[in-house]
Automatic annotation (TrEMBL), chains A, B:
SUPFAM superfamilies named among the record's database cross-references: alpha/beta knot, L30e-like
GO molecular-function terms, A-Z: methyltransferase activity
Similarity comment text for this entry: Belongs to the class IV-like SAM-binding methyltransferase superfamily. RNA methyltransferase TrmH family.
Source organism per UniProt: Amycolatopsis pigmentata
Protein name: TrmH family RNA methyltransferase
Protein's GO biological process: methylation
Transmembrane segments: none
Entry coiled-coil feature ranges: none
Record's keyword terms, sorted: Methyltransferase, Transferase
Length: 274, 274
């Protein structure tokens, strides 16, 4: 039975072939080749189990003791649970303080087809976002704001990158995610779904506090250093700047996304009376 | 003349006593002892010069070439400009990619007395915030939202920490900052200034989208892992939760602060018709 842990079986070390193979999933090329990625930590593993995406769960003795409910949930779903040494867990981890629980999961991203459900009201589009921590934080904010989907467009980072998974704190598993090289196609899909396209842009004429945000919108965010390309700014309905009431010249990507996404989410709910 | 650079003078190395002394300012104990700290990078140095807080400017040959206006501004203000080698600049830097321009500045923080100007409408209070990057990002957001002051209360990190200075992107110099061990005194000062005390708290009954935020407020934010202590939650007027419309269990500190501070800043301006 693949779903049970052999009591007394020797834990896998960092040299056990299945651990070695899993470790390779920290590299994007290997994730793309195998269709798998690693999700580390309690939040992420719980959310991945919920979504039935886990293929194997590596767990240290102490993590097994600390989170029996996760190990039980894995067993229940017929997921192979593999005890590992602390050093093996550290080898699978990209953090300074490994949590001792790492899942091999199926990739999450899907195509644009059917990504946006009928009645979608809030979508986040990340264009050429380079930093995985930023991408993960924006995915977490989008999830919190009740977004219907997140699209990573153009040259954006792989959302299955370990730093992105970690920064998303489980949210990567909570809402549909698509990766699309063709940014124009991503924008078209949003427009076809009836969404108004707003782009966060520091030099825009329209200010966030002057807009009616109650209608369904897709918020488009650009690269941390370079912002949005000119052709994307031409393509959207309205470039929007966050008003800077004090001396700051800008906000960073994650806090800007938080302000924009929540401004829309709260305005939509105010206007619908709930 | 201390305000001029000797053309052709040998640049300081990482072993030059003034560089060695400046380098010690990366440690809190040394900052507290000397009343000085280091501000690195173009934004921070420009803002520090503006505020007349710079005592000495260390600059590499290439940074001097890239930013002649900063060096000129330093000369104009009679600030000692000291050419340094790339290695000396790296020794003074806490980043992976040093910018080659570092200022020794007077500490910024002031006491609570007179911190809050008459008519203050928006203040951020950080209680026991541990991560300097988070503190700096919240200071940047508070500045962007037009806050009148930021108070670092309780066990919060030193805002002059290099990571905090960097994350604030110059904002540390834009608005009054106080450090106060006694959190209750910080809250009293806000209340005495006529501010309503709101605390960001995940388990609060009142939701952000149900509140009238147009009146003058102090937003109180807690530690990244533990949130706000019970006595602080009892002391404030209203604990407030950010509504989580999707599957996320929480937001991180910086994005939560962005949502709260901007919700108040925009509501205040809407209600005043500007």
């Amino acid at each position: 039975m693949s779903g049970t842990t052999q009591p007394g079986a020797e834990p896998f070390t960092q040299r056990t072939p299945r651990v070695v193979a899993a470790r390779r999933l920290t590299r994007r090329v290997e994730r793309d080749r195998t269709g798998r990625f690693l999700a580390e930590g309690v939040n992420a593993v719980a959310a991945a189990l919920e979504r039935q995406l886990v293929r194997e769960l590596f767990v240290t003795a102490s993590a097994q003791q600390a989170h029996p409910e996760l190990v039980a949930a894995a067993h229940e779903r017929g997921v192979r649970v593999s005890p590992v040494t602390d050093r093996a867990a550290a080898a699978l981890s990209e953090t300074v303080t490994p949590q001792g629980i790492v899942a091999v999961c199926d990739l999450l991203d899907r195509s644009l087809d059917g990504l946006l459900p009928p009645g979608a009201r809030l979508v986040a589009v990340l264009v050429d976002v380079a930093d995985p921590g930023n991408a993960g934080t924006v995915i977490r904010v989008a999830d919190a704001a009740g977004a219907d989907a997140v699209i990573l467009a153009g040259d954006s980072v792989d959302p299955h990158n370990g730093k992105c998974v970690r920064a998303s704190a489980g949210s990567l598993f909570h809402l549909p995610i698509a990766r699309v090289r063709d940014t124009a196609a991503a924008l078209s899909a949003c427009r076809d779904a009836g969404l108004r396209l707003l782009a966060a842009h520091g030099y825009a004429e329209a200010a966030l506090d002057s807009l009616d945000l109650a209608e369904p919108v897709a918020w488009v965010f650009g690269n941390e250093a370079h912002g949005l390309p000119a052709d994307v700014l031409r393509e959207v309905d309205t470039p929007v700047r966050i008003p800077l009431y004090g001396g700051a010249e800008s906000l960073n990507l994650a806090t800007a996304a938080a302000v924009c996404l929540y401004a829309a989410a709260m305005a939509q709910r105010r206007s619908s009376g709930g």
